[in-house]
Amino acid sequence: HAVHQGWQPLEYKMNMKVNKVCCECLVHTCRRKKELKARTVWLGHPEKCEEKYPKNAIKNQKYNIVTFVPGVLYQQFKFFLNLYFLVVACSQFVPSLKIGYLYTYWAPLGFVLAVTMVREAVDEVRRCRRDKEMNSQLYSKLTVRGDHSMTHPDDIIPYTQIPADMIFLRTSEKTGSCFIRTDQLDGETDWKLRITVACTQRLPALGDLFSISAYVYAQKPQLDIHSFEGNFTREDCDPPIHESLSIENTLWASTVVASGTVIGVVIYTGKEMRSVLNTSQSKNKVGLLDLELNRLTKALFLAQVVLSVVMVALQGFLGPWFRNLFRFVVLFSYIIPISLRVNLDMGKSAYGWMIMKDENIPGTVVRTSTIPEELGRLAYLLTDKTGTLTQNEMVFKRLHLGTVSYGMDTMDEIQSHIIHSTPSRKPQPPAPKVRKSVSSRIHEAVKAIALCHNVTPVYESRVNGASAEPEGTEADQDFSDDNRTYQASSPDEVALVRWTESVGLTLVNRDLMSLQLKTPAGHILTYYILQIFPFTSESKRMGIIVREEATGDITFYMKGADVAMASIVQYNDWLEEECGNMAREGLRTLVVAKKSLTEEQYQDFESRYNQAKLSIHDRALKVAAAVESLEREMELLCLTGVEDQLQADVRPTLELLRNAGIKIWMLTGDKLETATCIAKSSHLVSRNQDIHVFKPVSNRGEAHLELNAFRRKHDCALVISGDSLEVCLRYYEHEFVELACQCPAVVCCRCSPTQKAQIVRLLQQHTDNRTCAIGDGGNDVSMIQAADCGIGIEGKEGKQASLAADFSITQFKHIGRLLMVHGRNSYKRSAALGQFVMHRGMIISTMQAVFSSIFYFASVPLYQGFLMVGYATIYTMFPVFSLVLDQDVKPEMALLYPELYKDLTKGRSLSFKTFLIWVLISIYQGGILMYGALVLFDQEFVHVVAISFTALILTELLMVALTVRTWHWLMVVAELFSLGCYLASLAFLNEYFDLSFITTRVFLWKVCVITLVSCLPLYIIKYLKRKFSPPSYSKLSS
């Protein structure tokens, strides 16, 4: 049920285990030119709303009932080929232009259209069903009566996905905040903290939301999902309450609430929602091969018109020459074969079926059956990082204390140290500065890791019982290990806390004021949180000041990136070197440090810090300065290394693609350090390559300097952030793309979904090469739809990407086989098939031309009615179509020598050169067949038709055999079947053939001679070419 704008607040009971339903929001096809405006939304008073806002429904369909037929016909006749046939077929209704029977022209055309219509209709119905499923989800709505009236007479579905963009008013959590998952929006799987509007959270009861007079002012809808500006105003109290609203108070649609219940007021719906504004309109993708064939058919059309003009000119432009010209055009219309589209479309379906049936890449789905050949022509692969190259599962790998380093295999030693060194309860006098024992240093380090973070332990029983008895006291909760899960905004932190649990120090409870740790002996240690300094991308570090309940000691713990921490900790000689070592292994490093504070030091700091927080001007700077007064001479405790595990076989797959000449660009929403780390560990950037990190630029001058600095470097990978990229593209688009395309690898971090799509479009415009995008989350949909070929992975981030993609795979490693084997075969086969079908048309047109020129340029057809239809269908269709089973290289070979793929991108299998060779072959063969039949025939016209047609069929069958590179048993069957069909049909075609003549020996030897003369030279040429300049693949297979 659509939720109307500015309506009553909505309430959702959130159920953790409801599966995420993927929604695929595409902007409506016909965008009304309506301007997006800022709005004021009154709580619980929809009648105060003057504006009309869009309905909250999703629409992915391309057509509706009315536009379906015209739409599909337009898509078909947009191609020159089909339009041409329509004109030729229509001309047959004019008596003076009529040549032969109507069905010879209309039957093939009708068949092509019927096949296309059915295919489109099936796709449409599927889309419609998906939309219906998304739009029929129910939500509960709060009304003035105070009860929960249903938006629908059915019942409330407890549902976790937010249906529209809202401002967060109330929550059942005591803290006044909740966690949401935003993976469908920005691809990050960590949980984000959202805070309620303080004024509405303080209200004693739910119903009071209607008794206050309050409104929300929201800025106009925009693309940026990471920012929001608005105000909340309550008028009916004295003085009025004003609260500023930021991104922390919003709940965007397509995010999922992970804890508690939320109540919010809707501010944007339908196509004004952030998630919808960030998805681009999907386009009908047309393969490069289809465009090339379209160009060739135009060339053929020109040839056909020229030929007709020549014929009429040789006649001497006598009589109604214009009508004769048109008759010739129709006669030669076989130069452009209508069966080309049918054959290619059936071929595409066959390739799709082969891809889905391939046991080496199980679970692969072909969603767009029109572009399998694109897989064989790719020059750029744009990939997402999280969930595509990595599994997004962090594992703690290494702890380094300066003198000792512990890896995965020595964690049990740490555990034994922790068990033995549980600290005593009485405060110890400060020891003299002697080097501490390893045991105490390990204990200090583990304790610091267990305390310095933003992780909250959550217990399953508590989540489910939240509504039943929220007053459950802390004491009677079981802190048992089996139902504890950790929540945090960063997966790295969860990995660290899980590790401290595994070595014996467990985080069992956390609220805004305190932390509780459980020792191996079962004691609970309580620490009061005095201050928290959260992690920001500028500071690159986070800190916490805690007071231990038992001893009263105050300690300041801090952890952060090595660049930020190196200047803060006391002098040492190992930190930089060890950080470098860990980074080379692809580990994410964090430096952990501490500082003990006396009561006086802390009080002094607190007063300065609070004063800084209240200042109006330069607040951020003053707060940072206050904290920095503490960040001096801290004691370095340890260095931790966490690994983001790569997907299976990512390294060999990237290696394979690189050797195939495909340039790989990684576009990710993640941080620069993380992205660089993964680029190294996945060997996207090879070991010996330099990495050039593009410095942050904000204006034209800086961008100019940075680009010049980058231009001086050779063969090095580029790492650039989304903001800098935006600036470079604004001022130096062409120069930047040119430089970036020379890089072996490019990493773009902090990319928004729209930016990803923009990069794809840039590559398409500037390089004319084919691009492929691969991703697994909702934030990759725009990029997948913009690319020439989009591949989606069914990942942890939901199915949204795999539904929007042209090809859906289950694992990243399958892409190697998909491109090297299936892409190669589809392209090679379609190229051979297309050219052969054209040859089949050209050869018969050559014969027609020779025939007409000998018989005084009469526009009379050589072969009538069924002979023509039979020639294009039953006599030659199966052998020609069996070319889709042909392969030049075995799959194992194609995967072993990916360099073979490089040849394909040059597009040499189908070019004007290869096409001209086929034209010459057709002219030679057509001429030989016709002249041969005329030279050898016995004064009677009937026999010319019989001899030349039989020789023509035999020639075609032999030519298929000549084209084939690897025989398949079905090909042999097709050849024999076609020959059998022809011989059998001779008995029935008495109107064309004289049976008594066909059975004579004279007929047989004449046919054999003509066929030999037309085919033998080609066989000899092919053999010599194979011997003296073999193609690269034949060198391998021999």
TrEMBL record:
Entry EC no(s): 7.6.2.1
GO cellular component: endosome; plasma membrane; trans-Golgi network
Catalytic activity: ATP + H2O + phospholipidSide 1 = ADP + phosphate + phospholipidSide 2
Any one Pfam family match given in the protein's UniProt record, by short name: Hydrolase
GO molecular function, one term: ATP binding
UniProtKB keywords: ATP-binding, Golgi apparatus, Lipid transport, Magnesium, Membrane, Metal-binding, Nucleotide-binding, Translocase, Transmembrane, Transmembrane helix, Transport
Keyword set includes Transferase: no
InterPro entries on file: ATPase_P-typ_cyto_dom_N, ATPase_P-typ_P_site, ATPase_P-typ_TM_dom_sf, ATPase_P-typ_transduc_dom_A_sf, HAD-like_sf, HAD_sf, P-type_ATPase_IV, P-type_ATPase_N
CDD domains found in the cross-reference section: P-type_ATPase_APLT_Neo1-like
Topology term for the membrane: Multi-pass membrane protein
Composition bias, Acidic residues: 471-480
GO BP terms, alphabetized: endocytosis; phospholipid translocation; retrograde vesicle-mediated transport, Golgi to endoplasmic reticulum
Binding site for ATP: 384-386, 493, 535, 559, 588, 668-670, 750, 756, 779-780
Compartments, record wording: Golgi apparatus, trans-Golgi network membrane; Membrane
Cofactor: Mg(2+)
Family classification: Belongs to the cation transport ATPase (P-type) (TC 3.A.3) family. Type IV subfamily.
Stated name of the protein: Phospholipid-transporting ATPase
Organism from which the protein derives: Cyprinus carpio carpio
